[in-house]
Design brief:
Layout: E1 2-6, H1 12-23, E2 29-33, H2 37-56, H3 62-71, E3 72-75, E4 86-89, H4 95-108, E5 114-117, H5 124-127, E6 137-142, E7 151-155, H6 160-172, E8 176-179, H7 188-204, H8 210-221, H9 226-233, H10 236-248, H11 260-265, H12 283-306, H13 312-323
Parallel strand pairs: 1-2, 1-4, 2-3, 4-5, 5-6, 7-8
Antiparallel strand pairs: 6-7
Helix pairs in contact: 1-2, 2-3, 7-10, 7-12, 8-12
This protein binds nicotinamide-adenine-dinucleotide (NAD).
Nicotinamide-adenine-dinucleotide (NAD) binds next to α4 and β6.
Length: about 325
């Protein structure tokens, strides 16, 4: 199997490493394409770090590590994707850029090549609006850490046979595809971004510190704490973008307005790694914070279920697997 990943930023190299780990042993190949050499160099260095760690922990044999190294092909040339049977676009989260990349990919790849978009929230219909063959275009929304996190939200196309091939392709690449409707932020990212935004709002209002919010939420439902996850993924600006998508959607309203603190923290960190804040809290503070966080989690879960965005059981599974909650929102007692 020959696969292409476009974009060697935060998530592209992780996706490429996950795919190559699944198919290298069977002679598969994964191209990692970016327009910037420094992005490819950084992506490759990260992947080598993963391989080194897996080797030193005995999770990968020398032979498997060599196969991974051989099967991963970084490239600045989009034309190298011509032999791929699946290309996953994981480039900058910007609609005009995604449409331009799609037009170029359609020009390069074979007629039977499947095309996925790793977008965090832009509907498939928007990205594929001008596609020559929209029926082979799919949302394939992955989760952090993408090299080992199994779930991928998939928005299918009008062609059932191609959608089935898309699902089977992701399964061969070691993923667990979950079908969702074509709405802004799909299922899990709707819940996740609104949950993070509420946590950020609580800090912005001065109700609790980032350290307290993370401690309270993690102690209650696990998941590492919403703002810790933002630090791990550098996800503040992506979350802001997703909130804006949901605000401007047909079902949107001013309620989704992202708190300004998301942009203020931006690419920075909520927690100083050298001097973490004091996360201790009183039962009264925990109650105040949890009332607000759980209200958002339950409200967005109901929205996703009521609007048939994905099956409720899938949503619970997604919340456990991709958000790390100890139980799905509809299972939380
Ligand atoms: N970061 C995450 O945790 C995460 C999680 C789920 C989904 N996503 C989605 O994955 C996509 C990538 O996100 P990211 O955080 O890695 O972005 P990023 O900004 O870190 O990286 C984007 C990369 O795309 C490259 N790029 C831009 N235009 C290109 C082009 N024309 N051809 C090839 N490469 C090009 C850039 O040089 C850059 O290296 C986005 O759509 C995002 O919503 C990200």
């Amino acid at each position: 199997m020959i696969v292409g990943v476009i974009g060697s930023g935060s998530i592209g190299p992780d996706l490429a490493y996950g795919f190559v780990s699944a198919i290298a042993k069977d002679g598969g190949k994964v191209y990692l394409h970016d327009i910037r050499q420094e992005a490819l160099d950084a992506g490759l260095a990260r992947i080598r770090g993963y391989v080194f760690k897996a080797l030193s922990r005995g999770k990968l044999s020398e032979k498997a590590a060599k196969a991974v190294e051989k099967a991963l092909v970084p490239t600045l040339r989009a034309e190298d994707l011509a032999e791929c049977e699946y290309v996953l676009e994981a480039a900058t989260e910007d609609l005009p850029i995604k449409r331009r990349i799609l037009a170029n990919v359609e020009r390069i790849v074979r007629p039977d090549c499947l095309i996925g978009f790793a977008t965090s929230g832009i509907p498939r219909a928007e990205i594929a609006r001008d596609a020559v063959h929209p029926e082979r275009c799919f949302v394939n929304h992955p989760f952090y850490p993408a090299w080992r996190s199994p779930p991928v939200e998939v928005v299918g196309s009008e062609d059932a046979a191609l959608t089935a091939r898309m699902v089977a392709t992701l399964e061969r690449l070691g993923k667990v595809p979950i079908i969702t409707a074509d709405v802004e932020c799909f299922a899990a990212d709707d819940i996740f971004c609104n949950y993070v935004s509420e946590a950020a709002r609580i800090v912005q209002e001065g109700l609790a510190t980032a350290a307290q919010v993370d401690a309270i939420v993690h102690d209650a439902i696990a998941g590492g704490g919403p703002l810790n996850v933002m630090d791990l993924t550098r996800g503040n600006l992506l979350t802001k973008h997703c909130q804006e998508l949901m605000r401007d959607a047909k079902t949107g309203s001013a309620w989704f307005e992202p708190p300004s603190i998301l942009a203020e923290v931006g690419n920075g960190l909520w927690h100083n790694p050298k001097a973490r804040g004091d996360g201790r809290y009183t039962p009264e503070l925990a109650q105040l914070v949890l009332d607000r966080i759980l209200a958002v989690l339950f409200a967005r879960t109901l929205f996703v279920a009521d609007n048939n965005i994905c099956a409720p059981a899938d949503l619970d599974w997604l919340s456990r697997m991709s958000l790390g909650f100890r139980a799905g929102p509809s299972e939380l007692g």
